[in-house]
């Protein structure tokens, strides 16, 4: 039995059996399943598939719920509001965690997004007060400053251009200034001249933009900033940095030791969490919005007219927290929401089933991963009746609010584990969009093309998207 020959002959078969061990589990629950291959699961071509676009096609083919095997792991994809509410909100007790994710480094693996159970809850409870209305108002001043600098830089570039406008590589341009914005708002540190080739931050930007996702500089920055704030004893705004310092001191006093929360990993990791979680998602949302309005000049003009009116009513030249109040710019906010509906940056918010669960004829076994197929859910014709593919901001105007199904707008997830930075994201998007629309007309170029990269792990990824920003007089 134990001879090497036996293993050589039967090991491949044992491995195949092991790989197929869960096949059939989803079918037994009555869920239509993407037929798995012999032992590579349902998606052997995963690395060549644009997953969020595949979800739209699968919704058309299988209906509101379907399953697949990711290797041997059963996955269920959901799109119906009732089921989403059950799993993400009402029965959160059964669906608290996300899948384990290897992000390529001890620190990065420790960010809250991938923590489980009680450890996640403690960190979330600790960080939640950061986004109260008064804190957001404080941070808004810094965000507005960054948006104005962005405009100033662009205007300067336009002065030197031959046709008066400037060609923008959307992702790179927004990402660079958003990283600067996050570091400034969260840590109070201004990144000087990020474009200078010798600048440490500039180098880090370039590494990030080349998709190497090298975050070590951010961990070092966080650690040094926390330490020097604690040493100097200064605490002013009760902002993010003060929260982290408080967290650091409590860990030092042994408060979280039984959860395995340490300074070097947990505290510093949460320091980079908001930057890592926020810059790319927001950058993609802005890129899509400007691409959409470059395609729809009449929508762009309506945004501009609304903004001019808000500025003149407020008798001001600066675009700030008060001016971007939702009631002053309902149409611009509707354009942002319609963009977020059609192009959710996080395309599959997910939960792992931690206790067997059943509801309405659907049974889900412990260990199954449930994914909210956001791109499909946000295009469900049942809830967006007059052609869900059409960019129609009116859907989100206050007078049409009653016609919207809240669980059919899934862009920020739901329940206790929804996007913690949602209000921050809206604040920064409104400030950037208003500043840009006030100063520039956005135009398509002959080389403008919106194309997605396949299989990005959490957030969607686009190929370079070029647009012209032409200054308004
Ligand atoms: C347009 C911008 C953004 C979009 C579309 C977005 C979307 C999402 C989604 C879908 C989730 C998962 C929710 C769930 O599983 O129910 C999430 C989680 C998260 N987001 Fe965002 N996000 C954005 C901006 C931000 C910003 C600006 C920050 C930080 C300031 C942030 C920080 C986080 C964090 C920390 C989590 C994990 C929450 C937890 O596990 O408790 N996000 N985001």
From TrEMBL:
Residues in the signal sequence: none
Coiled coil stretches, renumbered: none
Keyword Transferase appears in the UniProt entry: no
Heme recorded as keyword: yes
Gene3D superfamilies, per the entry: Cytochrome P450
Alphabetical keyword list: Heme, Iron, Metal-binding, Monooxygenase, Oxidoreductase
PROSITE patterns: CYTOCHROME_P450 (PS00086)
Purpose of the protein: Cytochromes P450 are a group of heme-thiolate monooxygenases. They oxidize a variety of structurally unrelated compounds, including steroids, fatty acids, and xenobiotics.
Family per record: Belongs to the cytochrome P450 family.
Protein name in the entry: Uncharacterized protein
Species this chain originates from: Orchesella dallaii
Lineage: Eukaryota, Metazoa, Ecdysozoa, Arthropoda, Hexapoda
